[in-house]
Amino acid sequence: MATTSQKTTKATNKTAETIDEAVASATAQAEELMNRFELPETVRDFAERGIEQSREVYGKMRDAAQQATSMMEESTAKATETATEFNIKNVDYVEANVEAGFELTRKLLETRDPAKAMELQLDFARKQADAFNTHVKDMGAFAAKSTPAVGEAFNTQVSKYFEQFRTSFSV
Length: 171
What we know:
The protein is an all-alpha fold. About 90% of the residues lie in helices and about 0% in strands. It has three helices and no strands.
């Protein structure tokens, strides 16, 4: 099954191919039109330079768009990596919580003394509260560390894209 990134790349490439075909067709039509009519040499040169400049600008814009797609894929990869790591940390916490619950159940089944059972439950509740507080602090620290990294990666990629796009128009 294709990933979103692969689908985006495929769609971008297909769009680029379609645009390439349209540009080639328009260029051929313009050249054919120039060949049909007797145009003064200066007008013909001016038109040919215009066509060539249009091709150059289009090529730069196309390259910038393809690079932007790659950059966005890199940014989303960083976000996906961070989200995966976040989810793994949560799954680890849940697994530890479930294991602690099973262990409490095993101990409660082994004891016959109600006072000991109450002590086991209080100890369990205390440990779970501590584990929860630690988990919340860890996840807060992880989010504080990861969020700027993902945002920075995205901002860097977007800035690069707009700079490349801007330079595409300077011939």
